[in-house]
Fold:
Amino acid sequence: MHEKLQSLIIEDEPYYRSSGNEVALFSAAMKRKLPMILKGPTGCGKTRFVEHMAWRLKLPLITMACNEDMTASDLVGRWLLDAEGTQWHDGPLTTAVRYGGLCYLDEVVEARQDTTVVIHPLTDDRRILPLDKRGEVVKAHPDFRLVVSYNPGYQSAAKDMKQSTRQRFGAIDFDFLPQAVEVEVVAHESGVTPEIATRLVSVATQSRALRGRGLDEGISTRMLVHSGSLISEGISPHDACALAMTAPLTDDPDLQAAMSGFVEAQFGPRP
Amino acid sequence: MNAHFEAIQGPVSARKLGMLRDIDDCAYDALIRAMPLISDYLKNEIDLADLAGLLLQIASEKPEAARAFADRIGNDPSLAGDYPGLRRWAVHGLQKHRNDIECMLHHFEWGSPQAYSDEQALHDTEELLRERGALLHYLAGFGFAEFSIDLHEPDTDGRQTRAVTIDDGVIRYPRRFHGDTTDRALLRRANIAHVAAHLRYSPLRRPAGNRRPSLVAMTALIEDARVERLMVRDYPGLKALWGGFHTATREVSGFDFAGLSARLARALHDDTYIDTNPWVGKGRELFEEAASKGLDDVNAFDRLARTLAINLGKMRLEPSADRQPEPIYRDDNAILWGPDTALPEDAERHSEIEIVDALQDGEKAERDVEGIDVRHRYRYPEWDHRLSELREGWATVVEEELPRRKTWPSLQRLTQPKIILSASARVPDRAIRLTRLTEGDEIDLNVVVENVVQQRARLSPDGRIFCRHGRRRRSTSVVLLMDFSISTERFVPGSFTKVIDVEKQAALVIAEAMEAQHDRIAIHGFSSNGRHEVNYRRIKDFDEPFGEEARSRLAASASRHSTRMGAAIRHATALLEAEAADHKVVLLLTDGEPSDIDVAEDDYLVEDAREAVVSALSKRVRTFCVTLDRRADHYARRIFGQRNFLIAERASTFANHTNRTLTRLLAL
Structure:
């Protein structure tokens, strides 16, 4: 392993509670070097899953959060200047390709479509990364793996992956965990009792029924963990749920009223 | 004729009465016959004119109903003293029973106008309608997304139903809420949660058979307690929510049927409540025993309800006829019993508040099943400025299927104004990147490096090292709404061109200019024939090119009927809402003020159109009007607002004016 990547190795096991066969599927895909798409609503555990898998596969994890201003150079690298002259600096993608690592492009549809095209030669059987500015073709290290993620729920038609990009990947659909498992996760991550966690998860389950009634997405597991930790800090459940769940989720007064109702249905009327 | 009647006569009322006589002399005669009695309740001429106007409106819709109304007033003249209540009652009858003349006549003969002037009920109703959205979301959270919330009809004798009723897909609320001390929002949530408990766990619509009223009431009470307990397992907070409404005690509730039931309800809900009454104690004991064996066995609970009912019978206690649910958040449990229920059934099965804002989910379009009339129909509310209320679903917009032929004569152009819509503003867009600029917001690192490399290689760099994000054109969607009422057949004063032709010219010019700019434009037209038939023609839709076919449709459009502006604006707004543009504009081309055959009131349609414009604005749709009516100033200003209309006096400049207007609009 290159010493550059040593710090990106994950030492301790990140907590991940599997609810299906995604670990087996993903391991098999990684074994056959198949690039993967992870789809799913926000806060359902996509990033945590990648961290967990990187730890399992003992690969350094190189994460990039994509955005509109990102250029191809930001991914592959660029020439920079020093006293001696120009010097090539590898981008995160090139680093992963050259030395072997798990490259994770988070929210990949936020990047412009022409930027993501640079991954095309990497994701078919060529497994090469041409650096035209440097006149070099980097052959992928045997340990190089590519994973991207996005949330199909709220993205507009304008932000979508090209067909030519899509068809190079395998995909796993993520959704919120079954109730009992989610309770386990919330209790573990936030430190509340399973009893409180059950109530929090019930609120979230009710809010998810409002999808399509003006709510883009229901309360996510991440939000539940946030409000759970506030409750562990000694904040009253009503305040914690308002702060970490109902207030951030929507500005619509009707929806907020309904969700305060769900909190009330678990924790009783506000004293 | 008495002296007071003579005193309140005047030119305004005389005009209204004259119109009434022309439309329906029977109703007129009935009114005049009743006048000696009614006139005592009318303060002045305006009151008389109002009454005549209301009768006129009913007569223009259903003459029989007008006669029934006039007779009713004659029999009960005191009704005339409360005009708003009377008006609300009449409008309600016209709308609700619009398809059933029998029901409508019954409404006017036997309905109770008093119920419509109960201030408390009006206030409660308004409050409920405000909260309706939140309550439906709340219910959806329990898994019942397809329900609507509605109101109970007031009883014929003016008595208000107090309890909530669950029906198929509808939850009916009373018009007037009791329990004034409590937090209303809390009470309604307790209601809805209780309703959800029934829907989730109760066996619905069982035949009641020959059960006695006391058994029916007791079964329902036990069932309430059972489903609430089941519900609390999943939603533990509900226990405290419901608990707040259990206030029965020995002192407050007493020992009659209702009192004991309320105490039992509380005892079953609250373990800490202590009640020394042996019957309540027995009920509690039996219930807990059954509950310990499982809450899902309905029959076991039925059996214990029977035992309790028999015990009550031994005490010679019977439920009173007008028993109300106790505690107040519970429903009347009509949903538990099938058709042969011992409880009175709500005869009114039609929905009262129709939630058919057209183009909303599910109820997009009603199609006639006969297969004859397959036109899409949409219902829109109308604004009653006298009552400051929306009349729900009052006007029906009918979309016409246009003949798809190509043989219409094409439009002759009068003039060919050259139009450039250049003012469309541009908005920043980070997805567009402009690089290699001599000045800009950011330095482009790649280019800088390239420049320095060239410098060191003793070449001259070009120095354009900046970049910034670009702008894209603001996207625009315009509905060009053309007035096709019969008045547009007139010639424009001072020329030999018909108004409709001028409108078509303008539409042609604007559509071409907009198309050339890749803006989205739709050309629609409207004319109305009473509130049930506002015809809406889609000459060119957003997704359709302005080609031969659309042109010939435009050329072929003929004028007829009247101008019900508000409904057309609402429909255009609804269509624009589906568009994803930065700018949304309704541009109305017209030749006169709104009018329709079934409206006699002067300001009604003007005020309605104004409301339509205002509510369009709240949906980010702007409305602008270009009119050929020189006397348009007073009403156009009222409808569209100070700067949102333009009076084009000459036919030759109409298209130009319209276009300039649009340019200005889009530049804003």
In short: The first strand of chain A starts at residue 36 and ends at 39.
